[in-house]
Amino acid sequence: MVVTRIAPSPTGDPHVGTAYIALFNYVWARKNGGRFLVRIEDTDRTRYVPGAEERILAALKWLGISYDEGPDIGGPHAPYRQSERLPLYRKHAEELLRRGFAYRAFETPEELERIRKEKGGYDGRARNIPPEEAEERARRGEPHVIRLKVPRPGTTEVRDELRGVVVYDNQEIPDVVLLKSDGYPTYHLANVVDDHLMGVTDVIRAEEWLVSTPIHVLLYRAFGWEVPKFYHMPLLRNPDKTKISKRKSHTSLEWYRAEGFLPEALRNYLALMGFSMPDGREIFTLEELIEAFTWERVSLGGPVFDLEKLRWLNGKYIREVLPLEEVAERVKPFLQAAGLSWPSEAYLRRAVELMRPRFDTLKELPEKAPYLFSEDYPFTEKALEKMREGLPVLREVEPLLRAQEDWSEAALDALLRSFAQDRGLKLGQVAQPLRAALTGSLETPGLFEIMALLGKERVLARLARALAGGTS
Questions:
Q1: Which of 5, 354, 381, 438 has its CA 20 to 30 A from that of 387?
Q2: How far, rounded to the nearest angstrom, does the alpha carbon of residue 435 sit from its chain's CA centroid?
Q3: Given 61, 91, 119, 246, which residue is catalytic?
Q4: pLDDT given at position 469
Q5: pTM above 0.85, yes or no
Q6: Is 180 annotated to bind ligand?
Q7: 246 in active site
Q8: How the protein assembles, per its UniProt entry (predicted)?
Q9: Beta 3-6 vs 35-40: how paired, if at all?
Q10: Residue 438 contacts residue 459 (beta carbons within 8 Å)
């Protein structure tokens, strides 16, 4: 059975790069009828952020990336947590000591800093301490770490399923720390022990971890375990081709959710960052992605995370993929957060229908059309100017509107066209001042559709306010 995993660290905002890697792990597991696990790598206590784990899990749930239960923890959809597995790592570190694949090192932080300055890195000097002496010093409680004893000379081969075989000279592989002096494991030890014990068969992660893979391969061999398959996905890039970072791009999944991006669209876009459909289409469901997925169609080029392309795709989902009723339902929290309201579900659906060609994120609807949901809407400078220029026309048209009984779009269209023709005006000379008065903007959907939706009472009240010299 194929078993994959995602292993985020709870050190801050849930990262878009985590979602990108999680998606491909999820897809590959589901493609093969396997299992997809979540493991919280929380052993670096200096960087641990309270609440970060819950935010990561909530973000994955929002994206529709569901994971399988961690059986050693229990409970529905419980993730693995490394902080709850510390005895396992110590046990395995000591096993490596017994097998001669690791050693205890007793340098103080000050000594290590001096060694790094002089040698450019740790030089393995504690290898020369006799094992009996090292064990005695450990029994006396002398602070120390446990390091990997890289076999030298020699080479280590890493097979990456996307790149082929990469050969590393063992002289270039450091004797990394496996167990820190506080009893917590480093990433390398915990990662390998957990992947083995959890039955992970396919390790799918970002390409930045490729340089650590020879260390992991050496650990698998030292334990006598089968080495999993490795797939190192290309990193997401900023527009300047540097690794995506919050200094240059929005990396928090919570930001995308708060800005009104749809989880389906973001998930679709993340898939496009590493994969292309056989027929070249850019919009597809998660199920279609799973059905079509092959590693042969994964590109190793550095994908550029283009926010404008994501906005375009999100707009396509709003206009062409989601049913109108679904868009109306999802936009409600954004309207409510802006202090806006609507008289009925039918009104909301019609408002969304009118505006749907004009917004690319859910948050943009209340920003672009507050006039559909409130009497307190702002005016642009151009709209104010146009309304003031057209006040004489508005004064003439007001009684006609007041007398109008048929308030349908067609009837309003006929009324205003006839009014303009009778006075030798172009329709725009009537419609634009009226549009400005009713919406505070000159960039709106069709005027007659807006008037029909607002209703006669609201239209006349807004027009009266404009004629009285008020804009709010």
A1: 354
A2: 39
A3: 246
A4: 81
A5: yes
A6: no
A7: yes
A8: Monomer.
A9: parallel
A10: yes
